Structures are given as C-alpha cells and as structure tokens.
Amino acid sequence: MTLQTLKERLPDYAKDLKLNLGTLVNETVLTEAQKAGAFIATAIASREPRLIEAVTAEFASTLTAPQLAAAQAAAAIMGMNNVYYRFLHLVENPEYGSLPARLRMNVIATHGIARETFELWCLAVSAVNGCGSCIVAHERVVRAAGLTPEQVQAAVRIAAAVHAVAVVLQAEAALSRAALVQAA
Q: Can you list the disulfide-bonded cysteine pairs (predicted)?
C-alpha cells in the first residue's frame, strides 16, 4: 500500500491528518534522509502494520541501507529505552537511578550514520513513546550537534502526525470489527 492510498482511506474526521501528512512529506527543513528516517522510525514505533508498510514503501528508497537499518534500530532501541528511562523518571525512589541499567544499547554508538541524524530519530520515537527523559537527552545532543529548533520541531511534527494516523487506523479497524459482530 502506498502512503497516498493510506491517506485516501482515512475517514473524513481525520482530514487534518491527511493534510498534515501531505505537508510533512514535503517538509524541507530536514534533509531527505532525516525526514525519511523520522517517518520510518516513528511508523515502526506506532506498531500499526499498514502504516509501517505505506511509510516504508514511500521512504525506504530515499535511504541508504545503513540509514534504513539505523532508522529501524532507532525504533527498536528506543522501544526498550523509553520504557526503562520513563520508569526511572516517574518512580519516586532515586535509588533506581543509581543502579546500572544492564541493558545492551550498543547500537546507539554503532549505528553507522551521522550521530545527529540517529539521535534525531531517537528523539522522534521518544516523542511517540512519551519518555520525557529520553526527549530531553536526545534534544540536547541534536541541538549541540547544530540542528535547529525548526529541525527538531519538524521531526516531532512527523512523529505526532504518524502516531495520530496509527491511532485512527487502529480505531477504524476496531470499529469495523465491532460492526461485524453487531451484524452477526
């Protein structure tokens, strides 16, 4: 399925999401690779198979093989880190923060692409997953590397729109199943 087909299948109540996707696909503040990876990493973080398929079909050819692997790795590692570091942030016992994580995170140093790009994708995934400490940490890294507030915002806007589309697709699937049950 293409991203255009997916947009056309969104219900009328999600018209703003259709428009936002169209705008974000044409975003120029990010490099093409930064934009493509943000879309792919956040689609994976959304856990919505049709969205992952459409976004990957739209953007994978924009990326080199190492960049595509890094976008996938950003979604994977942040899927773990966002849970762990959100726990550390939310728990009221500081003792946990002094304990070693004892979770492998080698890909953060061995992803094989520009550090600021990988960190930007990690930031976008962290926005989807709602981890405040990871958002703060990755935002500091990308800003220190020279990315602008507008570039950070663009990646987070992509994350927000992609996540919202996933929510709508999942809701529509559930509503369809409910309608089938009622009809039976």
A: 131-134
